[in-house]
Design a protein that fits this description.
single chain, about 450 residues, alpha+beta, FAD/NAD(P)-binding domain, D-Amino Acid Oxidase, Chain A, domain 2, 3 domains, 9-stranded mixed β-sheet, 8-stranded mixed β-sheet, 19 strands, globular
Length: about 450
Amino acid sequence: MDETFDCIIVGGGVAGLSAAMTLARADAKFLLVERGEWSGAKNVSGGVLWGRDLARLVPDYWADDDAGFERYVAHRRLTFMDDGAAFSLDFKSDHFAETPYTGVTVLRSRFDAWLAGKVQEVVDAGAHAEDSLLATDVLVEAIVRDDAGRAVGIRASGEEFHGKVVILAEGVNNLLTRQVGLQDAYVPADHLAVGVKEVVRFPRTVLEDRFQLSGRGGMSNEFVGPGATDGVEGGAFLYTNTDSVSVGLVLGMKALRAARKTPYDLLNRFKQHPAVADALRGGEVDEYSAKVVSMGDMRVMPREIYADGLLVAGEAANLVLNAGRAIQGMDYAMRSGILAAEAAMEAVRANDTSATFLKSYRTALENSYVMQDLRGFQQAVHVLHDPAMTDAVPRMACDFGREFFTVDNRPTRKAYQILRDVRKEHMGFWDLVKLGTRAGRAL
């Protein structure tokens, strides 16, 4: 096998595999290197993959009985929680059932392995089946650069492998991105979060009856408030899979450290909340995982996502957003992987892998929904992490619900009277006006 590749991809997650599929369909010679035993081996849990880019990579994937996703999202819910109550905004629509789906739940250990298999199928059917390779259980030690500083390959297991372009899709622990000087060695804790997840398994019929699911439809539920995180900045989630649920928290690292609380203890507390305990009753914990995640603040992004001979995609570029509507990360990884591969192939065909030429990747990403949403919803990220959003607002919602939905043998107050008194208890009038104005403009 020729060890000079059109492209070398570091990382076999969503971004790396999306780049690999794009290269395979372009009949390019590439090497994908993944340090896990297989793609997905390091990911024991999952979440929601939003958008329709999966259909670009694997057309009609939903018609495959063995497709790697769990359920499509047919039901969405946002829940405000205090210590004993939950007030939800609930939306269900038949338009979610239209294909390609706009959101599917995935378990990454299964999904990544399935997507890697689809990439291999395309490679095997191409003209360069003997020249392209998905190599697993390999740790990349360094980026190899020439005398001019251009990336020309990787060093792994004491050997060098050369490529015309290197795509770094190494994930949030982006050691190689830092090694080449695109990001500072230290990222402030207030720009990062800790994500903890459990996969809780049920008999499929029990799961579908409990969450009112039919066919392959599923539900996504996000939670905010002191009942979810015990006052620590962040939120919680619950997503339905085929015969399990993914349940977990995303907690601001700085706030978690200041509170002197452990992620696992907070997760157990969240699971004991009445609104959650009923949903999880009788389930068996199958998996647990924890990882560092970006909070969606653009200040944590690398100073640039391209250099001579090199591109950065997915979580390695901190392409994550939580602006209140959904936690988006895998869809950003997929789109950035596709765009990075397209830019790499254009550079190879032009025989110009300079930073000047590879800047087209940045331009394409800026023109995509990824950077437009990241820039457009930065203020929403900041509003979401306002202390009032993790305490006062959820408490107001739950206190309103307690009185509004309670029917007792006494005169009933009007909704505006309840809202007025609830607001007085938890927030000053002008504080609420300012927060509402900020939220209205941000969203």
